[in-house]
Design goal:
Elements lengths: L1 H53 L1 H6 L6 E5 L5 E4 L14 H9 L1 E8 L4 E9 L5 E9 L1 H7 L1 H31 L16 H33 L4 E6 L4 E4 L1 H7 L17 H11 L4 E7 L2 E12 L2 E11 L1 H36 L5 H33 L7 E4 H18 L3 E6 L3 E4 L1 H17 L6 E8 L3 E8 L24 H4 L5 H11 L3 E7 L3 E9 L1
Parallel strand pairs: 12-14
Antiparallel strand pairs: 1-2, 1-5, 3-4, 4-5, 6-7, 6-10, 8-9, 9-10, 11-13, 14-15, 15-17, 16-17
Pfam families: HATPase_c, HisKA
GO molecular function: kinase activity
Organism: Coprococcus hominis (ex Arizal et al. 2022)
Length: 551
Amino acid sequence: MKKKIFKNTILIILLLVVLCGVSIIGVLYSYFNKQYVSSLNQAAGYIAEGVNLSGLDFLTDLNENEKRITWVAADGTVLYDNKADPHTMENHKNRTEIKQAMTSSAGTSVRYSKTLSEETIYHAIRIADGSVVRVSVVRKSVPALLMKVLLPIILVLLLGVEFSAILAYRLSKQITTPLEAIDLDHPDESTVYDELSPFIRKIRIQNEQIQKAMTQLQTQKNEFALITENMQEGFLVVDKKEIVLSHNRSISTLFDVDESVDGKHVLEINRSEEFIDCIKKAIQGIHSEYICPVKGRFYNIYANPVFRNNEVAGAVVIITDVTEKEERENLRREFSANVSHELKTPLTSISGIAEIIKNGIVDEKDVKTFAGKIYDEARRLIHLVEDIIKLSQLDEGEQAVEKTPIDIYDLSRIEIHHLEPVAEERHIKINLQGEHMMISGIHSVLEEMVYNLIENAIKYNKEDGTIDVMIKKKKHRCEFCVKDSGIGIPADQLDRIFERFYRVDKSHSKEIGGTGLGLSIVKHGAKLHNAEIKIESALNVGTEINLIFPI
């Protein structure tokens, strides 16, 4: 700003100096030109009068060195010239000033000599005998005069430049200093000259408008941040070049990124082909979604295009955790497959035996044996359906939730009594240890849980094995433990034994029997009673399962 004011001021002043100088020279030149003409007119008149009275003698006696005097006859012959020999001079009849004088008594002309850079002014007067007296004077031309005064002009210009520089600097400083001193945040407190008052007022009004808009934007931003930061879902905004504009805390946690990812390509968040393809489709204006596995969990990614003026400006990506949904879906499919298999096996056996009996292929003495097999398979079906119904009730919360005080020691003793005949067949000894302890629970569910744990300990035990059932109090909690000396469970399968229909040794599942739902019922029962399950096992050593109930 200062440079522009400084430069323009100097240029204006220099232009004014030059214009003034040219104007002054022009005015003076015009003035002196008139003076020359007037002087020549007077001198010519005086000389013409003298020649008219005394003739050549007047001219001879006249002592004039500054002006050139020429007497020309009526036919153009030069009779006298005080600067040259008349006999060597050519006829002047056709000279402009001579022709004018002969026709109208007086004439004037100016002739320029390029060689000498001079101008000659001629003034001629016709006298009574028809001859013409001409007086002339030589003067410098305008260019010649300018050349003579060039040095003074240069000096004046230099002085003008210096003066202009000082003036321009002071002027620019006077203009810009108040501008630079304006406090844009508090313009009314600034001291400025009157011309800046409207400018200050506009700044104040704009500041108020900007502050109001900023307050509204900040409020909206805070509200938006409050919403997005507290969302369990991941929230991500990208532009049409796939650059991350914003993301919330859930995105940071999910993909292990920080705030520095803003402003970078979305590849910095996740490099999977499906994830990038999902965002690319959204930027093309197409809604897209897919399920992405991340760190052992499943996330549904929804990518929607964002339009501005009917053009895609970017995309908004919402990421929701659907792990439980996927796990339930997988469990449902697996459960359906297992149920179908478990139902099909006894039904096939029943159907086959019934078909043999129907066709009369079975001897009378074998009918009872085949009927027994049909009965066993039917009982197996009944147990399976009952277990499925129990699990369904536990899943849907249909099991009666009325809890009563129950002595877990007495309950264990009763269930052991029911299972002793099965244990004796394999020479397995069941020991009950501990003390009577009361817990709040649902009798039918606890009964099923205890029964299933002891039954499993019998099924997966060795011949002549042992089972220890222990009840003890531990830090305001009741610990129910079933420990066997059986075949044990591999460490990599411990987490799966509570899955429905899961069997560690599938090849011997038919020999062992059961529906494969016992431990699933135990797991759901423990959840219903806020109980904790702990399991320890070693192959060919045995398994210990603990249920820890709050008292």
